[in-house]
Amino acid sequence: MTAAYLPSILVPIIGIIFPGFVMAFAFIYIEQDEIA
């Protein structure tokens, strides 16, 4: 029963939050690289 609505929670996390985290990490990495 739990697995019925589990994809509806995982899909937004993988589709929105994960790319946002990756782009934020890449932005911080580029900014630190330019400072150093």
What does this structure look like?
Belongs to the PsaI family. It comes from Teleaulax amphioxeia. It holds the Pfam family PSI_8. The chain is mainly α and 36 residues long. The protein is 94% helix and 0% strand. The protein has one helix and no strands. The chain has one helix at residues 2-35. The longest helix is centred in the middle third of the chain and has 34 residues, at 2-35. It is rod-shaped. The chain starts with a helix and ends with a helix. The relative contact order is 0.10. The model has no long low-confidence stretch (mean pLDDT 85).
Strand content: under 5%
Mean pLDDT: 85
Low-confidence stretches: none
Count of extended strands: 0
How much is the radius of gyration in Å? 15 Å
Class based on secondary structure composition and strand pairing:
mainly alpha
- State the distance separating the first and last CA atoms: 51 Å
Biggest pleated sheet: none
Order of helices and strands: H
**Overall shape:** rod-shaped
What percent of residues adopt helix (DSSP H or I)?
A: over 70%
Q: What is the helix tally?
A: 1
Transmembrane segments: 6-30
Function: May help in the organization of the PsaL subunit.
Main location: membrane
Family: Belongs to the PsaI family.
